[in-house]
Design brief:
The structure is a single chain. Helix 8 (about 215-225) links the parallel strand 6 and strand 7 (about 230-235). About 40% of the residues lie in helices and about 15% in strands. The protein starts with 8 loop residues before the first helix and ends with a helix. It has 11 helices and 8 strands. It has helices spanning about 10-30, 75-85, 105-110, 130-140, 155-160, 160-175, 185-195, 215-225, 255-265, 285-295, 300-315; strands spanning about 45-50, 90-95, 115-120, 140-145, 175-180, 200-205, 230-235, 270. It is of the alpha/beta class. Helix 1 (about 10-30) packs across helix 3 (about 105-110) and helix 8 packs parallel to helix 9 (about 255-265). The chain has a single domain (about 10-35, about 40-315), classed as Metal-dependent hydrolases (TIM Barrel). It is globular.
Length: about 325
């Protein structure tokens, strides 16, 4: 029986056609733009979602409607129109929950713009043949898998056979477990990192510390505790949603400095969490400029790691 996570023949064919049709579009969009090595300050955005209003070609998962898609459209072309003027030329796409376990739109976007995107997919950890599914996605450019407890209690969620399998496969195939978690999950994740020390781990959005406007020392202590695991990384991201939630976001500087001291810049990576970073008065450039120019405790080398090198090593290897 074909597992839920496998690509259908129709999906594979659609991906092939998308790659052929989109190559010219990618070249046109890139025309006149400096490449990653030509820009004086190239950057990689390590966390962005894309989707299309074309729900006929890319159906939404059960429980989602077009009303859930806000903004109604955020295609790769719309994303690159925001990113490239800010000196960002490569991006890690994160599978959007609108599509459930069907990663087709993300994969087709990666094929349409070769060399521009890496991917973090979502799979059903309760389905069979996880190793085969994850390996097949790796062959298509996926370098990580989003894990999220949803409404489940954290410790039982991390203890399921499927989750344990994902962490083992991640270690074997060098595929990152990318955790969208709240601060209450940081201690249980510490135990998982200790149990699976060879598994690459990436914590999204500071572990959501400060999402209620308060940056608590206990939460930050628990996040920094993960630094003792050498394969664990943190996304310095989603500035629009944390702390004061206002540009220029310098109130997040002390938290970033604490992470620099704990993890070193070699295990931190900047990201926007677009399209949400470019709504309600927030801008793409304000996000990247916090790291690029507004934190005086960062050296040029620190900025290079946080803005590009760490994400390149984890997601573009």
């Amino acid at each position: 029986m074909r597992p839920e996570n496998s690509l259908t023949r129709r999906q594979a064919l659609r991906g092939t056609l998308a790659a052929a049709a989109g190559l010219a579009a990618a070249r046109v969009l890139a025309a006149g733009e400096p490449g990653p090595e030509e820009s004086s300050h190239p950057a990689i955005d390590a966390h962005v979602h894309v989707w299309t209003p074309d729900v006929e070609s890319y159906p939404l998962a059960e429980g989602f409607t077009k009303r859930d898609m806000q903004p109604p459209s955020f295609t790769p072309e719309q994303l690159l129109a925001e990113a490239r003027p800010a000196g960002v030329h490569r991006i890690v796409l994160i599978q959007m929950n609108f599509y459930g376990f069907d990663n087709s739109f993300m994969l087709d976007s990666m094929r349409r713009f070769p060399g521009t995107f890496s991917g973090v997919a979502v799979v059903d950890e309760h389905a069979g043949e996880l190793a085969e599914t994850m390996s097949a996605l790796k062959q298509q450019g996926v370098r990580g898998f989003r894990i999220h407890p949803g409404q489940q209690a954290v410790e039982p969620w991390l203890s399921t056979p499927g989750m344990k399998s994902m962490w083992r496969i991640g270690a074997d195939q060098r595929l990152a477990m990318c955790g969208l978690v709240n601060p209450n999950a940081l201690r249980p994740l510490d135990a998982m990192c200790q149990r699976y020390p060879d598994t690459p781990v990436v914590i999204d959005h500071f572990g959501r510390i400060g999402i209620d406007g308060k940056i608590r020392e206990t939460d930050l202590d628990n996040l920094c505790r993960l630094a003792r695991h050498p394969n664990t990384h943190v996304k310095v991201s989603a500035f629009y949603a944390l702390g004061k939630k206002q540009a220029p976001y310098t109130d997040l500087g002390p938290m970033i400095r604490r992470l620099v001291d704990a993890f070193t810049p070699q295990r931190l990576m900047w990201a926007t969490d677009c399209p949400y970073q470019v709504q309600q008065g927030h801008t793409y450039r304000d996000s990247v400029e916090l790291i690029r120019s507004r934190l005086d405790f960062l050296s040029d080398d620190d900025r290079e790691w946080i803005l590009r090198k760490t994400a390149k090593r984890v997601f573009f290897n």
